[in-house]
Design a protein that fits this description.
Structural class: alpha/beta
CATH architecture of the largest domain: 3-Layer(aba) Sandwich
Distance between the termini: 13 Å
Radius of gyration: 23 Å
Number of helices: 18
CATH class of the largest domain: Alpha Beta
């Protein structure tokens, strides 16, 4: 099988969230299973500057984009054993940020998708059997493949799969603009094809035209077929439900490995973690300027400060939680109103709370390793990686049971003492507060049970192996069905 994995992000090259983590890990796991999978993404400014000496130029061409004719360069380099191709155009990708302005982003990724399809085959020296697409930035490729190529006898045996990482972002723009950028005839501008409620919708088009649709967790696959989580696409997804499948993400277990992680003060494993994790906690307390109290539960969050992440719930209850004998550390940045609220709460509790309003991946790993409890009260969470990283480091998560959080965190069962964390069901601040207080009480009063839960958390399988196996089978199913 030849698979071309099209994405707007990839770790460690350029990423803003979970999509970058998936693109940085899943292709490598699939290549380990003998699949010739390669990645294609934009050549962003930061990649060009950082990897200038490693990039190899392949060719250039001109891409028709409505009334425009735009240069498209094709470069390649190896990234951790994975061949990666890059589409170059400084007008579209020579910016400091990956995403700029929503309207301009639609144009930028319309160009990217047309350039990818034009590069396939002889230009890049690789003819895919299947396009693995990711989110709205690549979602128009199946209809472009049909309208521009397959109807004219090209790429007839190329099929497609789209993965939804976050349904909230869909790629929506005016009909005249999209039709101009993508050169689609009026036949495609209907509500059973490209349009949703009369407006072009990239994500909807990908769902409609791709051979299969995956999401990044089984629960999220079910949730997005409901009105609450469906972001206006629940009807489309129910109609296409036969081809929707949830495949849980994994994490990079080599990077996030407390037994070998050079970023943490003391290494530890699931077989011997108490002393090492205790040293990490003491070092974190010292770094944060908090009292070094080994028996005081240290609660943390590593998050974007955004509504989706349940920050409203946190802000509502944090003062009351900090009246308990606990400590709290937060690392993250985002919406200014949330940043301001977090700083105000920190100012009221200087001996119990420290807020790092920024992002630092090495500090994040020290927080994961040094904390006892990790909060993740998301309103929705397609998969989530932080809860898995926390468990890998022996820090028990408290999550709202939605999406991938429900699939990865087994709430503590007091009757058989099983579980790897704690959970609550409703979007309710006091459910978060009471669940956290229950976890704190268990930490204080039942150290034997707590150790058992930590062991269950640390011994979970969070690797990409299962996901890669599921994707390999899905690729085979698609290609066998279409022969």
């Amino acid at each position: 099988m030849n698979i071309l994995f099209a994405t707007s992000e990839m770790n460690p090259l350029a990423a803003t969230g979970g999509l970058g983590d998936v693109a940085g890990s899943l292709p490598a796991a699939l290549r380990g299973r003998g699949i010739d999978i390669r990645v294609i993404m934009p050549l962003y400014k930061k990649i060009k500057q950082t990897y200038r000496d490693s990039l190899r130029f392949i060719r250039w061409s001109m891409i028709n984009l409505g009334w425009r004719t735009m240069y498209s360069g094709l470069f390649t380099m190896d990234v951790g054993g994975v061949p990666v191709y890059f589409i170059d155009n400084d007008f579209y990708f020579g910016h400091d940020n990956l995403y700029i302005d929503y309207s301009f982003d639609v144009e930028r990724f319309a160009f990217f998708q047309r350039a990818v399809l034009e590069a396939m085959g002889d230009p890049m020296g690789f003819q895919p059997d299947l396009l693995h697409l990711n989110d709205w930035q690549t979602a128009m490729m199946p209809v472009l493949l049909e309208s521009h190529y397959q109807k004219n006898g090209y790429h007839r045996d190329v099929h497609s799969l789209i993965t939804i990482h976050n349904l909230k972002y869909q790629g929506i723009h005016g009909r005249e603009v999209v039709q101009d950028l993508l050169d689609l005839s009026d036949d495609y501008m209907t509500d059973d094809k490209v349009l949703l409620n009369g407006v072009p919708n990239f994500m909807k088009t990908g769902i409609t035209y791709a051979s299969r649709v995956t999401t990044v967790s089984p629960t999220y696959a079910r949730e997005i077929m409901t009105d609450y989580y469906g972001e206006g696409l629940d009807g489309v997804l129910r109609d296409q439900g036969w081809k929707v499948q949830g495949i849980l993400n994994g994490i990079d277990i080599d990077l996030y490995n407390p037994a070998k992680d050079p970023a943490i003060p003391s290494n530890f494993s699931e077989k011997a973690w108490i002393r090492g994790k205790g040293r990490c906690k003491a070092a974190l307390q010292q770094e944060a300027g908090l009292p070094q109290k080994s028996k005081t539960p240290l609660i943390s969050m590593v998050t974007r400060l955004a509504q989706q992440k349940g920050i409203d719930l946190l802000v509502r209850i944090l003062d009351e939680l900090l009246e308990e004998d606990v400590q709290f550390i937060l690392l993250g940045s985002g919406e200014p109103n949330y940043e301001r609220s977090i700083r105000e709460i920190e100012a009221r509790h200087p001996d119990r709370m420290r807020a790092y309003v920024m992002f630092d991946p090495l500090l994040a790993r020290r927080i994961y390793a040094g904390s006892d409890i990790f909060l993740m009260p998301s309103l929705f969470e397609p998969c989530g990686l932080s809860q898995m990283i926390a468990m890998r480091y022996g820090t028990l998560p408290i999550v709202r049971q939605t999406g991938g959080l429900a699939d990865t965190v087994q709430p503590y069962n007091r009757y058989d003492q099983t579980g790897n964390g704690f959970g609550f069901l409703n979007i309710n601040a006091h459910e978060l507060l009471f669940t956290t207080k229950d976890a704190v009480q268990l930490y204080n009063d039942e150290p034997v049970i707590w150790k058992k839960l930590v062991h269950q958390a640390m011994t979970g399988d969070y690797s990409w192996d299962r996901s890669a196996q599921s994707y390999e089978q899905l690729y085979r199913d698609i290609l066998e069905e279409t022969r």
